[in-house]
């Protein structure tokens, strides 16, 4: 593996996961026995490991620096035809390596840098949704305030909508670039600072939900073209196809995540058995919690090369 991009496969799989070919091949239960192990290994690693010609003219850009990456080998991705350089790879976000609260804590910290009050308002938003969504008039208020494509009709819908908001807060943090960009959504520079503008004073009740609807409006309607907000399905990142990510994390890349319910997120426990059962329900597969750590030596990166951070 002297000329490969080590394990940077999170975004790699996401890049291709929206396609029909991907869906029919990798989510096809009738292929299950055949595809689960060999194929997922092949796609993630063997292809990446092949020696490929070096590329020129690519630049790797982060918040802090631009770096030419001409010296990196790019994966020849035969399934999706195009070459790919994967990034955004949380290579230590695995069982026993990183505490399950780390991801949401970092996300909350990103928002807190803009405003602690903004974080407190977002947190209060969850219980406010539950309170106001407890009757039909409240559900109607929420649906029209947030301009939802499908109205909320039950407490179960309120739960799903809470998850939708929490995913959106994560997406904001992932694309909190100092310049306008359109990676996951069209957004201005420093989108979190922008999102917090209506949330800088402590709010409650309907006023709080109205302010939060300005946040969804920023994320989903910065161009002004959105007719309504689609809280079902892929949420904030339809182009990436969450389904691919979900499948990957239901097989080889189990990433424990939890929140104690204090920051931008409501309380979420990490329970591997529950997670595994949900994977089985959705894809007919069960995750292998420690496989990736055992196979790739966990935090021991001494023999890896070409890692970009
Ligand atoms: C699933 O795989 C079977 C067997 O290879 C194939 O006949 C079927 O068309 C596939 N289904 C989809 C939805 O691609
Ligand atoms: C490969 O990249 C080209 C150029 O960006 C694009 O037009 C094409 O759709 C891509 N193919 C796939 C299979 O993603
Ligand atoms: C999106 O913005 C436009 C222009 O401000 C507005 O007319 C429209 O109602 C907005 N859509 C949603 C879903 O909020
Ligand atoms: C919740 O988690 C945050 C971040 O790790 C921590 O600062 C805080 O003390 C915790 N609060 C409680 C009540 O556990």
From TrEMBL:
<keyword id="KW-0865">Zymogen</keyword>
<comment type="function">
    <text>Cleaves C-terminal amino acids linked to proline in peptides such as angiotensin II, III and des-Arg9-bradykinin. This cleavage occurs at acidic pH, but enzymatic activity is retained with some substrates at neutral pH.</text>
</comment>
<keyword id="KW-0325">Glycoprotein</keyword>
<dbReference type="GO" id="GO:0006508">
    <property type="term" value="P:proteolysis"/>
</dbReference>
<dbReference type="GO" id="GO:0008239">
    <property type="term" value="F:dipeptidyl-peptidase activity"/>
</dbReference>
<keyword id="KW-0645">Protease</keyword>
<keyword id="KW-0378">Hydrolase</keyword>
<dbReference type="GO" id="GO:0004185">
    <property type="term" value="F:serine-type carboxypeptidase activity"/>
</dbReference>
<comment type="subunit">
    <text>Homodimer.</text>
</comment>
<dbReference type="InterPro" id="IPR029058">
    <property type="entry name" value="AB_hydrolase_fold"/>
</dbReference>
<comment type="similarity">
    <text>Belongs to the peptidase S28 family.</text>
</comment>
<keyword id="KW-0121">Carboxypeptidase</keyword>
<dbReference type="InterPro" id="IPR008758">
    <property type="entry name" value="Peptidase_S28"/>
</dbReference>
<keyword id="KW-0732">Signal</keyword>
<dbReference type="Pfam" id="PF05577">
    <property type="entry name" value="Peptidase_S28"/>
</dbReference>
<dbReference type="GO" id="GO:0005764">
    <property type="term" value="C:lysosome"/>
</dbReference>
<dbReference type="InterPro" id="IPR042269">
    <property type="entry name" value="Ser_carbopepase_S28_SKS"/>
</dbReference>
<keyword id="KW-1015">Disulfide bond</keyword>
<protein>
    <recommendedName>
        <fullName>Lysosomal Pro-X carboxypeptidase</fullName>
        <ecNumber>3.4.16.2</ecNumber>
    </recommendedName>
</protein>
<feature type="signal peptide">
    <location>
        <begin position="1"/>
        <end position="21"/>
    </location>
</feature>
<keyword id="KW-0458">Lysosome</keyword>
């Amino acid at each position: 593996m002297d000329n490969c991009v080590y394990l940077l496969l999170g975004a790699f799989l996401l890049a291709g996961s929206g396609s029909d070919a991907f869906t029919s091949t990798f989510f096809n239960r009738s292929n299950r026995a055949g595809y689960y192990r060999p194929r997922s290994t092949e796609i993630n690693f063997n292809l990446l490991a092949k020696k490929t010609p070096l590329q020129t003219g690519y630049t790797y850009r982060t918040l802090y620096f631009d770096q030419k990456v001409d010296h990196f080998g790019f994966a020849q991705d035969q399934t999706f035809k195009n070459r790919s350089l994967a990034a955004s790879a949380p290579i230590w976000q695995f069982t026993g390596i990183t505490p399950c609260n780390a991801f949401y804590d970092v996300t909350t910290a990103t928002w807190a840098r803009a405003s602690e009050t903004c974080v407190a308002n977002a947190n209060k938003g969850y219980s406010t949704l539950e309170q106001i969504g407890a009757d039909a008039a409240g559900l109607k208020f929420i649906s029209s305030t947030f301009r939802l494509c499908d109205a909320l009709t039950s407490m179960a819908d309120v739960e799903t909508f809470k998850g939708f908001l929490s995913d959106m807060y994560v997406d904001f943090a992932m694309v909190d670039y100092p310049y306008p960009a359109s990676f996951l959504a069209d957004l201005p520079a420093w989108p979190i600072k922008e999102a917090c503008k209506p949330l800088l004073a402590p709010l409650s009740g309907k006023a709080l939900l109205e302010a939060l609807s300005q946040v969804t409006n920023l994320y989903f309607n910065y161009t002004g073209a959105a007719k309504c907000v689609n809280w079902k399905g892929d949420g904030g990142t339809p182009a990436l196809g969450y389904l691919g990510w979900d499948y990957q994390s239901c097989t080889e890349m189990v990433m424990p995540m939890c929140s104690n319910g204090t920051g931008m997120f409501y309380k979420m426990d990490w329970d591997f058995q529950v997670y595994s059962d949900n994977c089985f329900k959705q894809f007919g597969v069960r995750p292998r919690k420690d496989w990736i750590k055992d196979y790739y030596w966990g935090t021991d990166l001494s023999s890896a090369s070409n890692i970009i951070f």
